[in-house]
Automatic annotation (TrEMBL):
<dbReference type="InterPro" id="IPR011009">
    <property type="entry name" value="Kinase-like_dom_sf"/>
</dbReference>
<dbReference type="Pfam" id="PF00069">
    <property type="entry name" value="Pkinase"/>
</dbReference>
<keyword id="KW-0812">Transmembrane</keyword>
<keyword id="KW-0067">ATP-binding</keyword>
<feature type="binding site">
    <location>
        <position position="40"/>
    </location>
    <ligand>
        <name>ATP</name>
    </ligand>
</feature>
<dbReference type="GO" id="GO:0004674">
    <property type="term" value="F:protein serine/threonine kinase activity"/>
</dbReference>
<keyword id="KW-0547">Nucleotide-binding</keyword>
<feature type="domain" description="Protein kinase">
    <location>
        <begin position="11"/>
        <end position="267"/>
    </location>
</feature>
<dbReference type="InterPro" id="IPR008271">
    <property type="entry name" value="Ser/Thr_kinase_AS"/>
</dbReference>
<feature type="transmembrane region" description="Helical">
    <location>
        <begin position="295"/>
        <end position="317"/>
    </location>
</feature>
<keyword id="KW-0418">Kinase</keyword>
<keyword id="KW-1133">Transmembrane helix</keyword>
<dbReference type="InterPro" id="IPR017441">
    <property type="entry name" value="Protein_kinase_ATP_BS"/>
</dbReference>
<protein>
    <submittedName>
        <fullName>Serine/threonine-protein kinase</fullName>
        <ecNumber>2.7.11.1</ecNumber>
    </submittedName>
</protein>
<keyword id="KW-0472">Membrane</keyword>
<keyword id="KW-0808">Transferase</keyword>
<dbReference type="InterPro" id="IPR000719">
    <property type="entry name" value="Prot_kinase_dom"/>
</dbReference>
Length: 351
């Protein structure tokens, strides 16, 4: 095949992988580098607004670098054709995955963690996606998710309520309430849309179905229904992400932490308790007895004092020394006294 039959003299188009309102995506081969790529080819006759979207998406994606974003390799306009050459992701869209039925809560939380991490990076670069929905999420065969289609994304300081043609941007089924009301749109709108995407994955149903106007207005009449049986932290996180007031929604980074189980609650600091200084012991005075009952107490106290004095005097007296009993002294000294001593000893022995 000669170079003239190649897109841009370089890319050989293959099977169509999918498409949207303004472009189709094809599997292709980069003949110069001999690798497979995905080519997003805008349809012929794209109007000026479409061309601006092409240029915006190429510029935004070309300046971003994150594992959850499809890398852009090339972009050009050839003979009136606009195309983006991107990394080829083998897998399906999240819309195809969720169409098969509800996903396990753990799987929903993991998909949400990855997508919230991508949004945190995008928001940190000052960009609002404005069209987060299942068909704009690719799920690879390995389970990694990629956020795509930045065609209507805007820098946060340039986001308006409408496009230049006066049309509110976004997909009706996933718009945040402030988008429907036509007020300022910023990062919380992406968080709200992601909350609806995850809710759809968990229930297997679109929360706000119907035509564009019907789906858009429905969220102004009721809040999303979060099934109470969904476990934590998924249940709580979805309720916070889909709060009507943008100020009450968590940031994308906070969502990633909550869904990944890495968030910690703030525990109020309790000042250390100072050890209490012991108060001096106070001896409570004994109340005085009534006048009529004082004399018995006085007599008893006097007797007790007298006994103590007697006992002290007795203990202070010298006690007589005790020694072994000796036979009484009798008779004259010497040998003449021996008979009497023997008599006394015999008496003592006999008792």
């Amino acid at each position: 095949m000669d170079d003239e039959s190649l897109l841009g003299g370089r890319y050989r188009l293959g099977a169509r992988l999918g498409g949207g309102g303004m472009a189709d995506v094809y599997r292709a081969v980069d003949t110069r580098l001999d690798r497979e790529v995905a080519v997003k080819l805008f349809r012929s006759g794209t109007d000026d607004d479409g061309r601006r979207r092409f240029a915006e998406e190429a510029r935004i994606l070309g300046g971003l670098n994150h594992p959850g974003l499809v890398a852009v390799h090339d972009a050009d306009a050839v003979r009136g054709e606009l195309y983006l050459v991107m990394e080829l992701v083998e897998g399906r869209t999240l819309a195809d995955v969720s169409a098969a039925g509800p996903l396990p809560p753990g799987r929903v939380a993991e998909l949400g963690r990855q997508l919230a991490d991508v949004l945190a990076y995008v928001h940190g670069s000052g960009i609002v996606h404005r069209d987060v929905k299942p068909s704009n999420v690719l799920v690879s065969h390995e389970g990694r998710v990629y956020l795509t289609d930045f065609g209507i994304s805007r820098l946060s300081d340039a986001v308006g309520r409408m496009t230049s043609s006066g049309v509110v941007v976004g997909t009706a089924g996933y718009m945040a309430p402030e988008q429907v009301r036509g007020v300022g749109v910023s990062y919380p709108a992406d968080v709200y849309a992601l909350g609806l995407v995850l809710l759809e994955c968990a229930t297997g149903q679109v929360e706000y179905p119907g035509s564009g106007a019907e789906a858009a207005v429905a969220r102004l009449a009721r809040s999303p229904h979060i099934p109470p049986e969904l476990p934590e932290p998924l249940n709580r996180t979805l309720r916070e992400m889909t709060a009507d007031d943008p100020e009450e929604r968590p940031t994308a980074r906070r969502c990633a932490d909550l869904l990944g189980g890495e968030a910690t609650e703030t525990i109020p600091v309790v000042p250390a308790t100072q050890p209490a200084t012991p108060e001096p012991t106070r001896v409570q005075p004994v109340p005085a007895a009534p006048a009529g009952r004082r004399w018995p107490w006085a007599v008893a106290a006097g007797c007790a004092a007298l006994l103590l004095v007697v006992l002290a005097v007795y203990l202070s007296l010298p006690q007589p020394a005790t020694g072994p009993a000796l036979p009484p002294v009798s008779g004259p000294p010497g040998v003449a006294r021996l008979p009497d001593d023997l008599t006394n000893l015999e008496r003592l022995v006999r008792g």
